[in-house]
Structures are given as structure tokens and as C-alpha cells.
Amino acid sequence: MAKNENKNTLGFIVNNGGVLSLIQDAGRYGAFNLGLTNGGPADPLAFYWSNRLCGNELNSTAIEINLGGLQLTAQVDCVIAITGAPMPLTVNGQAKDLWRSFLVKAGDKIHLGFTSLGVRCYLAVAGGFDINPIFGSTATVCRESIGGISGDKLVENDVLPCQAVPKAADKLKQLMLAKHDQPKYSNEVLLHTVLSYQHQHFSAIEKRLFFSSEFQISKHWDRMGYRLQGRAIKADISGILSEGICYGAIQIPADGQPIVLLNDRQTIGGYPKIGAVISQDCAKLSQCRQGDKVRFEPISMSQADNFFHLNLSRFNQTQLIVCS
Amino acid sequence: MPTRINDSIRLEVAGENALMLYFSLNKSLVSEQQTSTITSSISPIISNEVHQAVQLIRQHFTIEIIDLIPSYASILVVFNLLEIDHHHLRNKLKSVLKQCGSASSKQGRLVELPAYYAIESGMDLVRIAKHAKLTVKQVITLHQAQEYRVYAIGFAPGFAYLGEVDERIAMPRLTTPRLKVPKGAIAIADRQTAVYPAESPGGWNIVGLCPIDMFNPQADPTMPIEVGDRLKFVAITKLQFIELGGKLPNQVSSNGKE
Prior knowledge:
The complex is a heterodimer of chains A (324) and B (258).
Chain A: E1 11-17, E2 20-24, H1 44-53, E3 62-66, E4 70-74, E5 78-84, E6 89-91, E7 94-96, E8 101-104, E9 109-112, E10 120-125, E11 159-161, E12 174-176, E13 188-195, H2 204-212, E14 215-221, E15 225-229, E16 243-244, E17 249-251, E18 259-261, E19 268-269, E20 273-277, H3 279-285, E21 293-299, H4 301-317, E22 321-323
Parallel strand pairs in A: 13-21
Antiparallel strand pairs in A: 1-4, 1-11, 2-3, 3-10, 4-9, 5-8, 5-10, 6-7, 6-9, 12-22, 13-20, 14-15, 14-21, 15-18, 16-19, 17-18, 17-20
Chain B: E1 3-4, E2 9-15, E3 18-23, H1 32-39, H2 44-60, E4 65-70, E5 74-79, H3 86-97, E6 110-115, H4 125-132, H5 136-145, E7 148-153, E8 160-163, E9 178-181, E10 185-189, E11 192-195, E12 200-202, E13 205-209, E14 230-235, H6 238-243, H7 249-255
Parallel strand pairs in B: 6-14
Antiparallel strand pairs in B: 1-2, 2-3, 3-5, 4-5, 7-8, 7-14, 8-11, 9-12, 10-11, 10-13
Helix pairs in contact in B: 4-5
């Protein structure tokens, strides 16, 4: 295609797409009015770290690897970094660490095994993957057939173009994130929640139940949302006029089992909502799977604001270690 | 926590970086309880206000707002926490939207969409006619006589909720949704109608086919309609349907031509 003439055509070739590997940038914003959801990394923190380790702009296009199994062969020399859930990583059969950038050479084979803790990893490359954006973003949303290479997950023989490093780059500085600065993944998370939307349709008792109960993640968990199991929470209405759903919104359908809505959620819906989980905890939730446990804790909008800015300044102030 | 902007708009929290504007009929004398029941009804007057508020917000805000999701009687305002906090946003929305809902509010555009209504394109026409105790012809006449309003867009890219169909042809959703509803299908669910932007599963009752793309990422604009627009279906013949690029669902599968 003429469109790609000035772009890189070489990068990585996919030998095995694994369970679910998706091209993602920071997400698609500005197309909600067309019914397009935002997509983007389910765990933005790990995603941003992968880009920072490669010296990229934070929203550069990377690969989200869900559960594992991705196998790639490099076609060019380049610098990559993988962050997130502890998936076993090998390059040409040699074990490698996550949370650091390193040089790969043309012909190198990168394999990711499967993780038993956490769910998602991010593979970034210096300069970002060279994917044509659609509606301002490269984020893949399979349900909408939008983004990525063809609106779908990565499959064998897909080519992911990227920049090659210049020849002299062998001594390019490699970066790592200190162990104590790396996010910890857990089977139990606390979800800070802003009471909002239809919360007045839940009685004081139902709210107490909601915030004092433990919920388990059901078998329905994906990038669209996490369906929980626990004590049923009842609203005094069964439905509402369809309205916009924000990231982290907690829908309570008639069966009383909460659904926390994430990146690939529908943009509008008609179930009552009790509140919304803050973004940093949505990221933690997205690293959980069936059987893991969650609790909700109410916070005010101002506290949510504080959490957001504290988290951001912690991220900005954390220094990467330069490896020799 | 709710803030009243004027008699018809109230502002509430949605999430960490999202506020919700709720619209209701401008009746300053009704109690809060009554207001919330009125809000839950579908009304072109409310929809007009939603439309007007979207325009005002787009005019007065730039980088502070990430995106808006307008719907029947609400707008979700997603904002950028690096540019504004919720206190400032509330105040700014309050002053920008104060005049919203005044009588001067202008109506949305009127858009006409061609519709090929026939037994071969509207596989549920006979069922609807039977249910309504009308002839197929009457069902078609009633469906295209109405001026619809685009109340919301969502569910799938380009899927617009249009209302309201004449109550004589209101029809409940199928008990078992179809696995494949053809692209362009014009369909009814209760008093709502819609055009399926792409082939997809669906449980609405199909009355015809529209040859115009409801969602085309390559086109500008991507969709022929937006929330707040008014819409009329104009009946066309089979020949016109084909000339406009329309395809009958069985044609697509039988001769496999694009």
C-alpha cells in the first residue's frame, strides 16, 4: 500500500500470537459519540513503564500480552522491554528479566511463557510499533473490529513494524526498574470506589453490605469487564434510561452481582450503577482472574483526585537504573 | 453532592474523571422525586437540550474535556485530570450551561435516509402486521411517516437509537435474538427503531434495509447522523436500493460478490 511507503516495513514477525495479544496505545478518545469505546492497556501502569524503559513517549504503541504464549522473531536490531505480570521470558532460549530494556538482534526469538500470577504484560520497543492509527489510536478493540493490524488479536505471520537501532547502538544505555519500585501483583485487591450514578437507589443497608462484603471474580472476566460473585446487592430500580458509562463504573444487574466495567466496555447502558472504581485500582483489578478476591472501599471525589495525583507523581519521580 | 445548574439540568459525580449531566423537563415546581421519574421518560424536548448542551460544551472547552457521551437525558463528561479538577469543571459547566434549555434552543438537523421496505428486505413485516392487526402496507406507511430523533449512539460503533415509532407498530424484541442481522437492517424494538451499521447478532424486528453506510471509518463524517438530529426514512424501490449500493442479504451469500 502506498500509505506505508515511508514507514518501516520490518520489525517483528509473530510466530505464535499466544492466548490474546493485542496492539495497544494509551487508548482511543474522542470517538465516544460514534459508539467507539476507549480500549487501551488494561493495566496502564505496566504499559507506561514498558514505554519509559524504552525511552518512548508514554502513549507509544506496544503489545498487551494476556496470559502469555506470544512468540516473536526480530527482523531488525532493536531495543525492547517487557513489564507486567511475571511471565517467563526467553530470548533464543536464554532466560531474561522483565522490567528492563535490552537489545535484540535480527533473528532473535522471543518467547513468553504463561503466568500464574497476574494476567497481562506489555512489550514495548524503542520508537514504538509503527501501526496506522484509526480514529486517532492504534488500540485494538476486537468486539468493534477496530485498531491494531486488522481490528483483531495478533496471529501467526503478522508483521509488527518498528524502527531499527542505528549500528553504533550496541552501547545504547539499557534501563531497569528497581525491584522495590515494581508493582506487586496479588490475588486480593482493594478497590477504592467513588459513590456515584444511581447510588441513591441503593439503601444504606445495601451500601453497607456492598462495602463490607468480599467478592470473588467469576469466570466472566475480560477487557470489557469483571463480573463478580458474592452477596447480592439490590437496587430499588431494575433499569434506567441508557446513559454513558465511565471507566471503572460498577453496574448492578437484577441478580445483584456487580460488574466492574473496564477498557472495552459498551459506551452506554441501562443497568443501575452504584459507583465507579478509581483508575489505579481498575489497573490492579485487570491483573486478577477467576477466583481472586476483591473488596470495595468508599472514597470521596477529592480523595480520588489525591490518589490520582500522588500516583502520578510517584511514577514521575521514580528513577530508572542505568545498566552498564 | 448533586449541583443544580438550572431548572432542568443537574450535575452529579460519575467517576474519578467523569461528571454526569442529567436533564429533565423544565418544571421548577416539581419535587426532586418527581423530577427523577420525569427524567426517565423519553422526550424530544429533553433531547434538544442535550444536543444544545453538547454544542455549548464543545464551544467552551478544549483540552479539559477528553470526550462526551450524550444519551437520552444525560451527558457523561469525561475530563482530563491533568488540566482541570472536578471543582473547577463543575463551576465552569455551571456558567456555560446556565442559559441552556431556554426557548431559543434550535432543533437538530433533519436527515433523510432511504429505506427499501419489502417482504424480501423486511423479514419481520408480516409478523409485525399480524401483531398490530394491520396490513404490511400500513406498517410501512406508519414507520416512514414518523420523524424520529437520534437519542443516543452506542451498543456497537454507529448504532443509533431512534425514537419513537408509532405505538401501533411498537413490537417487543425477539425472544431468541438472531445470530445474524444483515448490515443496513432497519428494525424495531418496542418504540425504538434503528439501522444496524454492520452485520451482527440482534433481536430487533426487521422492517427494511437502508443502503447508506451508518458507520464508515473511511468516510467523513463517519456517520450520516449524530445525537440530536431528526431523521426520516424515505421509501425507495428495489432498483433504487441496488443503485445506491444496497445488497439483499441472500444475494451477498449466494453469489458472494462484494
